[in-house]
Design a protein that fits this description.
The chain is of the alpha/beta class and about 250 residues long. Strand 4, helix 4 and strand 5 form a beta-alpha-beta unit. The longest helix is centred in the middle third of the chain and has 29 residues.
Length: about 250
């Protein structure tokens, strides 16, 4: 049983469907995309998975803490959390302020830690005296290994989450594993034309960056491989090996 945050659309949806096809039951988290989340649930069910949608604003600590108990009331157990939901708003060193940093740290860093904490508590309560292995997979970003100054608060929040991977893996073993997955340019946005996206997607040593299917397959690998913890898998066609002065969306 896996909880995928931000699974109503985009990458979170692809991860949810891939895991459902692999035999996982899927709790679909969303914040505002209720209609899309219900579509993800229906598509997961069509693949044979038990699935349900759960609304929560992960920037709100009380709502974040209530999410795992809500999943447990519906499914009775939880084995893994995939933190795919992410706030991605532009700021720079020149426009940085506490409000922007607070928003990104709450949504992208604090929420992932609280959900890991909740899963850990559940596993201890579910299997007292036993070693129940759960897994948290945190979606990161190749730009942490190829730094640029754009999206300043977002980048700081993902850097903090990458550090939390190591700290959580140490603190919560052997009950839980914590693994990062860092995609490259995977999906287009309103900031990129299709033509520009395709050109940027090809800018890597392998001539292609990650696809949603690549990322979802890597998340599944992280969930299945019981020897992985405290590390990050970069899935970007080698984009982190190249020097990009700006964020892809501003190039």
């Amino acid at each position: 049983m896996v909880l995928v945050t931000g699974a109503g659309k985009r990458l979170g949806r692809d991860i949810a469907l891939h895991l459902a096809q692999a035999g996982w039951h899927v709790a679909v988290h969303y914040r505002l995309s209720g209609r899309e989340a219900q579509a993800t649930v229906q598509d997961c069910q069509a693949l044979g998975a038990d699935s349900a949608a759960f609304a929560a604003d992960l920037r709100d600590e009380a709502a974040c803490r209530a999410l795992v108990p809500a999943v447990l009331r519906r499914f009775g157990r939880l084995d893994a959390v995939v933190n795919s939901a992410s706030t991605f708003e532009h700021d720079s060193a020149q426009t940085f302020g506490f409000a922007a940093l607070d928003t990104h740290l709450r949504a992208n860093t604090g929420a992932a830690i609280l959900l890991a904490q909740a899963l850990y508590t559940h596993l201890l309560e579910r299997s007292p005296g036993e070693t129940a292995i759960g897994t948290v997979v945190n979606l990161l970003d190749q730009k942490l290994w190829n730094m640029n100054p754009d999206f300043f608060s977002y980048t700081l929040s993902k850097a903090a989450l990458e550090a939390a991977n190591t700290m959580l893996a140490m603190a919560l073993a052997p009950v839980m594993r914590v693994v990062g997955v860092a995609p490259g340019l995977t999906l287009t946005s309103h900031l990129l034309s299709d033509e520009k996206f395709q050109a940027l997607h090809r800018q890597s040593p392998l001539g292609r960056s990650s696809t949603p299917q690549d990322v979802a397959a890597t998340v599944r690998f992280a969930l299945d491989n019981r020897s992985l913890t405290g590390t990050t898998l970069l899935v970007d066609g080698g984009q982190h090996l190249m020097r990009f002065e700006r964020d892809f969306s501003l190039m």
